[in-house]
Amino acid sequence: MKLMVTGGAGFIGSNFVHYVYENHPDVQIVVLDKLTYAGNKANIESILGDRVKLVVGDICDAPLVDRLMADVDACVHYAAESHNDNALIDPSPFLHSNVVGTYTLLEAARKYDVRFHHVSTDEVYGDLPLREDLPGHGEGVGEKFTTESRYNPSSPYSSTKAASDMLVHGWTRSFGVRATISNCSNNYGPYQHIEKFIPRQITNILSGIRPKLYGTGKNVRDWIHTTDHSAAVWTILTKGKIGETYLIGADGEQDNKTVLEMILRLMGKDPQDYDHVKDRPGHDLRYAIDATKLRTELGWAPQYTDFETGLKHTIDWYTANQDWWQAEKAAVEAKYAKSGQ
Ligand code: NAD
Ligand code: DAU
């Protein structure tokens, strides 16, 4: 198989490229990545060669996308602007990459009848109430996201991802593009940009900066190790039913305060040694995925079922790879300081 991976130099995309490289030796990979602030050639440098090529370019560049799509069997689409806090400062690149970019890829996939897998987020469904606010603390009321949940995005980032999902639906039904969609929960693991919650706190502690928790810290995210996400996307690409959406999650709900205190404890620090900072405007309360469809219909199951162990590995990775993030740390923190975060 010849596979195009958009955004394959970013966090999740590069982990997927490594996953396919290691587990499927018959697959040739072309990474199309603009190398924005979030893309890093170093993430895939060690495997570039005969089987993995990097094309530096924009998914909105129609002639380039056309030329690359003409020569592949399948496309897995990760490229996007991905960070909520950035979209609250300037949404315009999110419209460009997430909406126009997806449209440009779909047009080329349609022309060459390329199998297309669109990587999306659970945030398209908006948020859920905190369990503590539900009757009986939410036990047994089935209040997780499913593929039946209503699209209800609450942020500039998630609304552009919802728009991109809608484009995929339209191109599948009207033009017969052979597409699937996956909506995944929060990923953690190596190569995640240090603007994101978990790597920001780990690298704060390694840099002697106090960790920063937004608001009360009661907000819940459903954590999945990025390797489990990669395995799920491969499963959907190869076994998924055209036109279907699959939700990806590993039953990893944790509130932010608990995660931060776990990081501090695992790094040998006082678990209370952090600052509460300004909350994110419109901050989604809780995400939780019901992945029954993916588990039962396609037989996927996560391997990283113990969050604390996965987190420990992630801390070890950022500790051992300080050259990978150190040059950017001051600028990332300066940007947050401007927003009071
Ligand atoms: P990331 O920001 O780490 O990486 C995005 C990559 O896309 C970068 O390499 C960047 O250079 C590239 N890119 C951005 N705009 C581009 C353009 N116009 N043309 C070509 N390349 C471009 O993001 P991530 O966290 O790895 O997320 C990847 C995908 O997974 C996104 O679509 C995101 O919505 C989705 N997702 C992320 C999570 C998560 O927890 N991070 C969870 C579910 C879904
Ligand atoms: O749910 C999937 C989504 O997960 C993806 O679609 C997004 O691309 C990805 O960025 C992620 O979105 P979040 O906004 O949930 O991730 P983030 O790492 O920015 O924040 C996680 C939680 O931590 C969120 O509730 C905000 C909080 N937070 C974040 C930062 C950066 C803090 O408390 N302190 C911080 O410093």
From TrEMBL:
Residues 4-313 form the NAD(P)-binding domain. InterPro entries: dTDP_Gluc_deHydtase (IPR005888), NAD(P)-bd_dom (IPR016040), NAD(P)-bd_dom_sf (IPR036291). It catalyses: dTDP-alpha-D-glucose = dTDP-4-dehydro-6-deoxy-alpha-D-glucose + H2O. GO terms for molecular function: dTDP-glucose 4,6-dehydratase activity. Its cofactor is NAD(+). It comes from the Bacteria. The keyword Lyase applies. Belongs to the NAD(P)-dependent epimerase/dehydratase family. dTDP-glucose dehydratase subfamily. This is dTDP-glucose 4,6-dehydratase. The lineage of its organism: Bacteria, Bacillati, Bacillota, Bacilli, Lactobacillales.
